[in-house]
Design a protein that fits this description.
By secondary structure, this protein is of the alpha/beta class. It is built from 20 helices and six strands. Strand 4, helix 5 and strand 5 form a beta-alpha-beta unit. The longest helix is centred in the middle third of the chain and has 19 residues.
Length: about 450
Amino acid sequence: MACIMWFRRDLRLRDNPALLTAIDQARATGDDRVIGLFVLDPALWEPSGPIRQAYLLQSLTALNRSMGGNLHVVRGDPRQVVPKLMRTTGATSVHIAADFGPYGRARDLDLVSVLGDRLVRTGSAYAVAPGRVTKDDGTPYRVYTPFYRAWMRHGWRAPAPDPPPDVHWWSPAGAVALPKPPKVGITLPPAGEEAAWARWDSYRSTGLADYAELRDRPDLAGTSALSHHLRWGEIHPRSLLAELSDADEVYRKELCWREFYADVLWQRPQSARHSMDPRFDELMPWDTGSGADQVFTAWATGRTGYPFVDAGMRQLRAEGWMHNRVRMVVASFLVKDLHLPWQRGAAEFMHWLRDADLASNAHGWQWTAGCGTDASPFYRVFNPVAQGLKFDPQGDYVRRYVPELAHLAGKAAHEPWQAPDGYAHGYPARLVDHRAEREAALTAFASLKGR
């Protein structure tokens, strides 16, 4: 009888242990058919922003092409549609990569109660699955650096072999067409496994050696820009790690941050929405006044009057992506200059980012806010002007996304208030005084001590 390969966050054929298991089991039964399934789950589809939806549809289109047009797509709650597909096709098993997110974990446990050992988990979206790396006493890590050392000691498997070229894909009756992509008004990067490998091969040969030096420069193409490919599993981190050497440790550490945050979320699923330091949700005097929504909108649309912050927020809407250094700066500005809770910013990111990953997003925000993991205290407040001058020294990043400042040469783009014609093209004045708001934030935080 046929077997089902249920694709979720592994939209690829290469280095896919779950797929290999599905193929082997189908052939062992004497029926080599494999149903390559994707479920359009309303619980995941509907909350997604249009950019994420559009990118996912491009990725599914690429996966379907690699399967000879045989990707079987259905709509509905997987708890109902997956068992139904098994009944109607006579499939003997469903193969998945383990999902460690809060929703996916609960969904799969519900399916186990129905399917039992016919739901077969093989591999995951991570080089080392969440929960595997612990302290000697079995407790989880909350600080990245010791987690990284333990993660390295644990190690990971080599990439899985390529699937055989003669997979008998079968799409039975009942598949639905992919939805029409939403209009997003931007050009998304190429999606799919082939595009992911092309991007990695290009970056490995031309940019990887300079990663440690250039990774914090948003004005330069210093990063691999693989985050959306990793988020959708178009390429596996294990495949990248296999091609790194000790000279690439800084890049390897960045891959580990993704695994660390996945582990933290798996250990504490409530941290997707709630601060790991509960005082930030219960006692911090966040701005809830009548002007809070107005300043949030100014931040979200890139109209704060701080060029580096505004360039980042405009890049987010223009590309569905933002440079990691800038993500930290804009997050710090929202929490510590505008005194708004990190959850509002995290939700904005999840709506717009094509690489939106719940674990990385929630815990990246909490790291900057000072209420999550690691040793980034609240009193570490990013100066939006100093950060811009340091990491965009000639103002090229600002001018690229803030055309009202294109007339200001060099670093002058970071301080339009210093130029006689700085506001000549409609750029807004500063929304707040950074120095004053920094002091207000530190005072607010001091009120939490001992509570």
